[in-house]
Write a structure and sequence with these properties.
mainly alpha; 3-stranded mixed sheet; 10 helices; 69% helix
Length: 263
């Protein structure tokens, strides 16, 4: 299972990068400078891709993939050092059992967050990307092929999306619509953080996760009230709508997002 999981990570990222680069060159590139058209086009491609997946693999979802052996043993480790030898499925965090594979997902997300941030901020390629977004004609005048750089960026984003799907598969399962659900959450995170702000997107994603977790607790366990016999609970619709509510509140206070700037 460990080998299959590793092969899935590598092949998923490679195929995602190749498909992303191909889509950028053939479909996205003619519409640079027309953001609304790009949004509509990519949304259409999402629906086409979903139906293609259904046609090839069926409309029914599949159960979650088996987790790698590092997280498969039915036990509870007392510390990270103990987990390295025991490979338990949970670890003690502040007196509570926390699934180790969820910690692995958080770790992968943190590595990608820091890696992309360093790439954009401190590398020559990141400088070219930021400059190409702002003044592509000026960058091309310096002899840099901006179109090739944009193809690389689109392919990198697609590779990371595919990598995220493989990493999430043992936790959320595999089903045709899984990409659309995460795409909506990503769009809301970008709006909350502010368009064009990498740090804002990270903060927006964190707020979304906290809001959804709070909504789930409010639905399942409820909030105890001293003068009430039963805890106050909400309907499941509140948990699903919590992310949209957070976006509405942020936009009412800061229409450009938390880190966004007015044009």
């Amino acid at each position: 299972m460990d080998l299959r999981f590793l092969l899935a990570l590598i092949s998923g990222a490679v195929v995602g990068a190749l498909l992303g680069a191909l889509i950028e060159q053939t479909l996205i590139r003619p519409f640079y400078g027309r953001p609304i058209t790009q949004i509509v086009l990519t949304l259409g491609l999402m629906f086409v891709g979903t139906e293609l997946v259904k046609a090839v693999w069926g409309r029914e979802g599949h159960p979650p993939m088996a987790v790698p052996g590092l997280f498969a043993e039915s036990c509870r480790s007392e510390s990270l050092a103990a987990w390295l030898t025991e490979h338990c499925s949970s670890i003690d965090v502040l007196g509570r059992a926390f699934p180790t594979y969820r910690l692995f997902i958080i770790f992968v997300g943190g590595v990608i967050l820091v890696g992309v941030g360093l790439l954009l901020r401190y590398s020559r390629l990141g400088m070219i990307i930021r400059a190409g977004v702002q003044e592509s004609e000026m960058v091309e005048a310096l002899g840099i092929n901006v179109r090739r750089v944009f193809t690389f960026v689109f392919g990198l984003g697609s590779a990371l999306a595919a990598l995220g799907g493989v990493v999430a598969a043992p936790f959320v399962g595999v089903y045709p619509e899984m990409g659309g659900i995460f795409q909506l959450q990503a769009f809301i995170a970008v709006v909350i953080g502010g368009m064009g702000s990498y740090a804002g997107t990270a903060v927006g994603a964190l707020l979304l996760g906290l809001a959804r977790a709070f909504g789930d607790v409010l639905v399942t366990s409820g909030i105890p009230i001293p003068w009430a016999e039963q805890a106050m609970r909400a309907s499941p619709a509140v948990a699903r709508a919590s992310t949209v509510l957070i976006m509405a509140i942020v936009l009412l206070v800061r229409p450009a997002g938390i880190f966004g700037r007015k044009e």
